[in-house]
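Can't attach files on this board, so I'm pasting raw text. These are the components:
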Amino acid sequence: GAGVSQTPSNKVTEKGKYVELRCDPISGHTALYWYRQSLGQGPEFLIYFQGTGAADDSGLPNDRFFAVRPEGSVSTLKIQRTERGDSAVYLCASSSGTGWNTGELFFGEGSRLTVL
Amino acid sequence: DQQVKQNSPSLSVQEGRISILNCDYTNSMFDYFLWYKKYPAEGPTFLISISSIKDKNEDGRFTVFLNKSAKHLSLHIVPSQPGDSAVYFCAASGEYGNKLVFGAGTILRVKS
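---
Top answer:
Structure tokens for the assembled complex are below.
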């Protein structure tokens, strides 16, 4: 498809387990973002990639969270030792901007993570 | 520390009337503002934006107004249509459009 694709759409896991969430951005988009949306809240920034490198990871809540984008396209968000508080919808977005851009991000449908 | 606030959790409007959604921000370094619309089970989609050098931007039925001195922006939808029923997020950025800061959203219901 032409849009941002995220898998899985739903993930239920047990506390303490490891989880990977995948994002396939729009082809040609160099910028990729991960956001987290908790119930009743707006999306909260986690990390931003420009190409293969993490240009800004200041939103990652702690060292249990890590993200990679090894070839500058697909990205994986990795969460170790999951906690119930990690339950949220994880949104991926991409944009074509390098440097100044309009801020128009194209979001995927999200991966809903539930930690029991 | 909520830098972007949408104080109305929900708004109900009659079809054909004007919808006004409000947003306040606290960070004076923000210089670009956006509105996103979200339907259930979908990701947010970009609606309209405004740079801090302007006070108004219009796109069809949608107009965004920015009052920098009051650190306030609003989205006007005229006329409102039932298909406009969604969650609307206000967002702001201060540096090259990265790291958007979102408000908590306002649920708009347009009644036919």
